[in-house]
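Task card 7
Instruction: Convert sequence to structure tokens.
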Amino acid sequence: MHLTLEKNTQSLQTTMREGFNQLEDKLALADQGQDEKAAELKTYADKISSELEMAEANSKQENNDLHDRLDKEIKMLTVKFTEQLNQALEKLTQVSNQLNSSKTNRKTLAKLLSTVASNLETDEGEQPEKWHSQTNRNPATLIPNRCAKSANWCWVKMVNKLNKP
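Output:
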């Protein structure tokens, strides 16, 4: 009996060792599989990290390029707008000066016409021959005596129109 017991124990120990060996082999395979998966995941993570860094660098470069392009376009538009503004201001100044000159010319003409009208009033009684001699024989400036009053009235109306703003 003792022998049977020993054989059974030995048989049991052998079976247990074989079972342990099989479990160790399975565990080693599982560890190896886990190590392979971990290495695969690490490689994949490194690849993704590298791609992310490259994408980030590209994105920064594209952003910088876009900002540079926008800055250039803004500067170009600013220069163009400034030129157009300066041209408009020059034109406005020119037109303003012309208006001021026109007003001055109108005032000068009004004064001239006023002087002519007052001269016509004082010369009303004179003869056409005297007017003729005073105008250096220019027939265009002769006003017959009979029309002096109506001519004077026309001059006064013109002077009044020119003096209005």
